[in-house]
Design goal:
Two copies of one chain form a homodimer. Chain A has eleven helices and 17 strands. Chain A is α/β, with parallel strands linked by helices. Chain A has two domains: 225 residues, TIM Barrel (Alpha-Beta Barrel), CATH 3.20.20.10; 94 residues, D-serine dehydratase-like domain (Lyase, Ornithine Decarboxylase, Chain A, domain 1), CATH 2.40.37.20.
């Protein structure tokens, strides 16, 4: 069996690789749909507000990006952990199945009726393995593995639950996290062990380029995706040589949906952030628009050049930088537990009690801080629970 | 009326202000009490584990630090939002009442039976004001204010709930967040407005030195506390001159309990982190010891020098740096949503499935990520809900 690399060289040849300028400023977002008079003022702050029309435009944009590439979208639940929003995403053209990152998320998805769930991660602790078994009672469960210990544990858990798990061998295509780096001698024995395990099925490869997603410049991301394709192609050839078939190749994210092209070896894309977006992705792609805002209240104006909001580290993640005010004249300079400290430009004069909308810097850990999303569709306000948040029990 | 500054000059004169070396490495913590064989392995990871004996030693240490100073401890709920743990803290000598940071926390505390609650913050949004009114049905509620708009809103909310709120005027003693900076002409009119409001009572001042808490070196913290005392003294004099009495002066935190001395103008300390501590406080004080660990599982060993754990940004806050492994040979180099990437020193060889305990860098936003604390007292494991986490409802 041979695998053609032709598409990749064709694909890259069409465009010159240049130092494309990075979008330093967030794009000119239309801002959230105006809420009916008084409704914004009555929101309990801090809270998350979804502009549903913008989210729908993002869902449509993602469908356009995968169209014709042979890649199906398997949206990633970890971005928002809200089953109601995920249900809306799955209605789009080109979607099949859902991705999640933890066994607990798989349980929440299965309980909400999802039937094709990829846990794009290695699950090792016994509580998590038990959860996979529970989720598999009503859903097809696929999980990842990068060593024989994973195979032993997954096989035992599936067997104990009287079910079968699909398994993807995880490759490290440059992110430096889990997965086998290129050319490792243990790849083929590992895949063979999965194929030979009584309660497992070798479904294919996971090759997620986490390092690519926020790389500035579409051409840089295309080049890095090309490198990943080369590695995937080489590993598929090794596996095919050993008679091991890999129908699934899963990877990609919000930052690389624009890099997909016909002929790719990938069969599915695990993008998650695209539906709500965040300020970090706004800096690297204009394919999507912000659909998520943290609504805050001005609680103090101690001096003309300073304001303080009622949203801090417990409402907004800061691992990817500070949140960005949706309007002009304000800049977040610091977050503490329950406060955002703002610099106020001359001319801006937010009053105590005013609402300020912030675009979160990183959607996933921000939504994880909230129990619900407030969703406005232009007519009514709904509250959608973030029902995939972690729930623990005594062992 | 005159206020003596003598204690402060006396206090400072006894010690030379030198560049005390900062504790760069976390102290030699005894580590968590060993769990019974098999119990650690069965914990659902990632989860938070409290070493209750260590927490009890911290509670006793805080009681010793306030003893004889005339300052009473009003422990801060925001550090962990767990009413069960707060109940234990309040049993200690020198404690009276509880501090929290949000109206939602006040509701949780009142529901759990706490009857003297300081919301050490400005509450402005209507949902929050309604919550204060609800909490005040069973508890004495004190809130902070730094402008007339706060007075109007608090007075209206207390009146609507058929109750009275105590109010502290917030001073900014250097933290640069909420509160009136030194010498502001609006201080006296503001205090007078509170005293004159129908449903409010002027209780005193809040003067929390947030900027002092993590300042390296006890002498530096003592100097900064002295500056705050001078400002408080001057403002108390101005208020006394206008016939406005301030029985309460509230402030201080875990980093400045060691700075308390007889004669201070402060009457209560709002420390919170001391009971569980964290790696950031470990760098600046040895008055307390770590009592909180994030229990994780090794999920991948892709290369000898690297390991990956199943705890990431959704289990550990990173605003104050990366978490610190409790044992030798491992270093956290990066967190992603659900992973911690570790550097593994030669000689260390954690296996897939092993448990690794991490000391969180910042306790407050870390506990806020979890639904419960697993608490081990040397004999039994309990699960204490983090029942003060935010709960939202449609307006």
């Amino acid at each position: 069996m041979t695998i053609s690399y032709q598409f990749m060289t064709d694909h890259l040849a069409t465009e010159q690789i240049t130092a494309e300028p990075v979008t330093a400023e967030p794009g000119a977002a239309p801002g959230p749909a105006p809420l009916p008079p008084g409704l914004l003022a009555r929101l309990p702050t801090p809270c998350l507000l979804v502009d549903l029309a913008a989210a729908d435009r993002n869902i449509a944009a993602a469908a356009r990006l995968v169209r014709g590439t042979g890649v199906r979208l398997r949206p990633h639940f970890k971005a928002h952990k809200c089953t109601e929003l995920m249900r809306r995403q799955l209605r789009a053209e080109g979607c099949h199945g859902v991705t999640c990152q933890t066994a607990g998320e798989a349980v929440a998805l299965a309980a909400a009726g999802f039937t094709d769930i990829l846990v794009a991660n290695e699950v090792v602790d016994q509580a998590g393995l038990d959860e996979l078994g529970r989720a598999a009672q009503t859903a097809r469960i696929t999980a990842a593995a990068d060593c024989l210990e994973h195979v032993r544990r997954l096989d035992r858990a599936a067997g104990a639950a009287g079910t079968t798990f699909d398994v993807l061998v995880e490759l490290d295509v440059g992110a430096g996290r889990c997965g086998l780096p290129a050319g490792r001698p243990d790849l083929v024995p590992l895949a063979a062990a999965i194929a030979g395990a009584g309660a497992l099925r070798l479904a294919g490869l996971q090759a997620y380029g986490g390092h690519v997603q926020h790389s500035p410049g579409l051409q840089l991301r295309r080049t890095l995706c090309y490198h990943a394709e080369l590695q995937v192609a080489a590993e598929l050839e090794r596996l095919a040589g050993a008679g091991l078939s890999c129908p699934v190749v899963s990877g990609h994210g919000t930052g690389t949906l624009e890099c997909l092209a016909p002929g790719t070896l990938y069969t599915e894309a695990q993008a998650g952030s695209y539906v709500l977006l965040d300020a970090a992705y706004q800096r690297v792609t204009r394919a999507f628009e912000p659909a998520l805002y943290c609504v805050t209240t001005v609680i103090s104006r101690p001096e003309p050049a300073r304001a303080v909001l009622d949203a801090g580290l417990k409402a907004l993640a800061v691992d990817d930088g500070l949140p960005v005010p949706a309007g002009p004249g304000l800049r977040v300079v610091r977050l503490s537990d329950e406060h955002a400290s703002l610099a106020v430009a001359p001319g801006a004069d937010p009053a105590v009690g005013d609402k300020v909308l912030l675009i979160p810097s990183h959607v996933d850990p921000t939504v994880n801080l909230h129990d619900a999303l407030f969703v406005y569709d232009g007519q009514a306000l709904q509250r959608w629970p973030v029902d995939g948040r972690r729930v623990t029990a005594l062992p």
